[in-house]
Amino acid sequence: MSNIRQREKLGLQGGMKAVSRIEGRGEPKIGIDEFMSIVERFGISRANRERIRALLRDEPWEAGPFLANYYSGLKETKVQAYEAMARRVFGVPFAIATSSGTGALHAAFVATGVGPGTEVICPAVGFIATAQAVVLARGVPVFCDVDASLAMDPAKIEKLITPRTVALAPTHVMGSVCDMGAIMKVARRHKLRVVEDCAQSCGAHWHGQRLGTIGDVGAFSIAAYKIVGGGEGGLLIAKQQRMWERASQVVESGGLWRPERFAAPRYKGELFCGANYRLSELEAAIDVVQLRRLDGMVKRFRGVKQRILKRLKPYREILPQKLNDAAGEVGYTLRFFPADVRLAEQIAAALNAEGISCSTRGRKSGPDWHLASFMYPVLARELASGDNCPLTCHEYRKRGGPARYQAPDCPVADDLFARLVTVNLNQWYSPRDCANVAAGINKVLSAYCKEGGENVWM
Question: Tell me: the pLDDT tens digits for 183-202?
């Protein structure tokens, strides 16, 4: 057979292939320049960056890395390693890596049944992301006042429960711990789900049980702003497979999490229109290392705070933050409430002058979206959609809504937040550092307050 006829014959029939080799040679999609951009972000000096670049030129880059969780061809991606680490650390069967703590919260609320016509009770102190995630799930946040722990006051939850209430969202603020025993009793009595917002207290415990594992779902922010995390990232943990599956559909609505991606629904409610909160391999590569260090970091913070607290004297004009579990909190801040805002300003200024890093809002402070009274996107009840659903939609009105936010709905939160003094702690303080910080706090408080009283620190 001639070469011409052989070329015309289909390859399927034994003919010559139309394309037997590719001559074009290019560079990898992700290669040296991208790697060096990351190295530069780490602050490596120019001289050392050039040395690293020289080493990389000898590497066989081929197509370069595929920096996504799915279709990577790897036995275990960094995202999968991060999720596996989370399951081990928290002792749960299910974990989902997310692109943010807000994404984890949104998925958690959907998983626990939040939707049109429903309400979730949220604390009056805690970042607005919690309440906004309720709205994203098409529910309505209802704010609960706090107690001296700055966490949701269990004694004030029941009066907020209506036939529309489906979940509680206790938020563990600034390394501290909610009174989870009392909160869970209320939840069980009224058959409510519990979504633990652990964004600010990753690694803390409630009487030996890790936060995030006490309620139905735990949501975390594993990010640069928190004690663990390097950029933007989050985590959701669950104990029940159906909740994990519903949360997975929110986080990865393309179905890549399913055993058969494009298969028909296996049960009613498995598939719905979700979002994309997937975590990238770059973030996961950092976060899996950070999560591995979590327990050591928390242990150091706890040790530092407890050494300082043991040295502090009681003062009549000072109310220490209530510690629901002093041995279980993370403890990266020390917080207390002077008798009034003016005294808080004086104490904060004096502590900073003593070399002790601290802050307070003060009389000239503006709005802060960590306090319900200032959460304007929620309070205004105006959403991106013209019908303002779910805050004023027909389904909610039909069930007794709409929500009305009238300041001050949460007077204790407003009062405590205004006069709060926060002392920032460092996990690497030596015993001598702790003694000096404690002595400095006593020095300042003794200058402005009277010793004595029953306001103990632990």
Answer: 999 999 999 999 999 999 99
Place of tokens 């502090």: 312
Burial of 419 (0-12, 13-18, 19+ CB in 10 A): buried
- The two three-digit tokens of residue 15, written as one number: 């003919």
DSSP lists the bridge partners of residue 210 as 205
CB atoms inside a 10 Å sphere around CB 222:
32
Cα angle 420, 423, 427; round to 5: 145
Structural contact between residues 451 and 308, judged by C-beta atoms closer than 8 angstroms = no
pTM above 0.85, yes or no: yes
- Which pLDDT score, from 0 to 100, does residue 404 have? 67
What confidence tens digit (pLDDT) does each residue in 306-328 have? 999 999 999 999 999 999 999 99
- Count Cα neighbours of 163 within 13 Å in the Cβ-side half-sphere: 6
Q: Which residues pair with 194 in a beta bridge?
A: 168
Cβ distance 423 to 344 under 8 Å? no
Cis peptide before 390 (omega within 30 of 0): yes
Q: Is the pLDDT of residue 263 over 60?
A: yes
How many Cα atoms occupy the beta-carbon half-sphere of 205 within 13 Å?
14
Domains defined for the chain, CATH in brackets: 23-66 (no CATH), 78-293 (3.40.640.10)
